[in-house]
Amino acid sequence: MTVRELQEKILKLKKETNTAVLAHSYQAHEILEIADYTGDSYKLSVDAANTDAENILFCGVHFMAETAKMLSPEKRVFLANKDAGCPMAEQMEKDMIEQIKASDPDRTVVAYINTTAELKTVCDVCVTSSSALRIVKSLDTDKILFIPDCNLGSWVKNQIPEKDIKLLHGGCPTHAAVTVSEVKKAKAEHPDAILLVHPECVPAVTAMADYVGSTSGIMDFAKKSDCREFIIGTETSIAEHLQYDCPDKKFYPVTKNLVCRNMKLTTLPDVYNSLMGISGKSDSDAFEIIMSDELIKSARKCIDEMIRLGG
Ligand code: 13P
Ligand code: SF4
Q: Is 260 close to ligand 2, i.e. is its CB under 6 Å away?
């Protein structure tokens, strides 16, 4: 079967099952083509809350599908590949954060959305990479514990030196692996290109960038920019999508190693098999996100707070 034929079957099954497909921008182009909603983690959480579809099929990683379930608890939410997790989301235990809170009760806990629902239950407000700076600035407290990404946290902290922002050691293993020498090499190879990076990169790398932003932020910036060449410091798929969308510009991944293996687990056949499972037409299991009402109620408070503060 060709990719096109499989995509046709998927489009038909989506209609039959009243399923909206949400795909993070790190997914493959052939998946983005059949998705109803695409974008960064913040945009997708808003889309999940607003869709009228009966079911949501998420092409991304586990915490994103969990967030969609919390925002649309009346819907059935499925993750297209059950093994797609985000290592950063699993890095910190709820108990450890509770202990820190007990010893330092005045600190507001700001959690990057890349966290488990369990951990979100002990956090005060969520942020995404596109909203972290704005939300931390807008909080009417100066004492903050920012978890789990110390690189995103450092980037925020550097721009709001007046706030006391405590960081813990955590972060994205994929973005944090980008080195200054890789950036220098890419700049030497493409001297006319400007550098756009995700704030999950280490501070020495974000300090070299012409623009720092979320996946959607990077894509919007590159599309609107008058520049012709760009070095892209986030998952390699973003340089590929941009090249496809803007054939008259040039996009270079900062390093070919910037690949999120978890994001890449989901394939078009996974999407098809999940929809077949949802339709009941086959024995193939669609992986459904199941959460207790109690967990949803407790974990979504910090997501509601993020949305109240304007993402
Ligand atoms: P965005 O908020 O930019 O979608 O980032 C999510 C993510 O996991 C980046 O690695
Ligand atoms: Fe998680 Fe990093 Fe992959 Fe994003 S790129 S999903 S933060 S492991």
A: yes
Q: Is the CB of 114 under 6 A from ligand 2?
A: yes
Provide the pLDDT for residue 311.
62
Instruction: Judge whether 71 and 42 are in contact, CB under 8 Å.
Output: no
The pLDDT tens digits for 215-249 are 999 999 999 999 999 999 999 999 999 999 999 99
76-79, strands of its sheet edge to edge: 37-39, 19-24, 55-59, 76-79, 287-288
Q: Buried b vs exposed e over 144-179: b needs ≥16 C-beta within 10 Å? A: bbbbbbbbbbbbbbeeeeebebebbebbbebbbebb
- From ligand 2's centre to the CA of 199, what distance in Å? 12
The CB of 258 under 6 Å from ligand 2? The reply is no
Domains and CATH numbers, the chain: 3-85+263-291 (3.40.50.10800), 94-173+299-308 (3.40.50.10800), 178-253 (3.40.50.10800)
Q: Is the CB of 100 under 6 A from ligand 1?
A: no
Low-confidence ranges of the chain (pLDDT < 50): none
| Amino acid identity for residue 94 in this structure | K
Whether ligand 2 lies within 6 angstroms of the CB of 174 is answered as: yes
**Residue 66 Cβ < 6 Å to ligand 1:** no
The residue whose C-alpha atom lies closest to atom 1 belonging to ligand 2 is 86
Look up the pTM and report it: 0.94
3-state percent breakdown (helix, strand, coil) of the chain, nearest 5:
45, 15, 40
Residue 261 Cα to ligand 2 midpoint, Å, equals 9
Distance from the CA of 113 to the center of ligand 1, in angstroms? 9
Q: Would you state the pLDDT for residue 233? A: 98
Q: Where are the alpha helices (DSSP H) in the chain?
A: 3-17, 29-32, 41-50, 62-71, 94-103, 117-120, 132-138, 150-159, 180-189, 203-206, 215-224, 236-245, 268-279, 293-299, 301-308
115 Cβ inside 6 Å of ligand 2? no
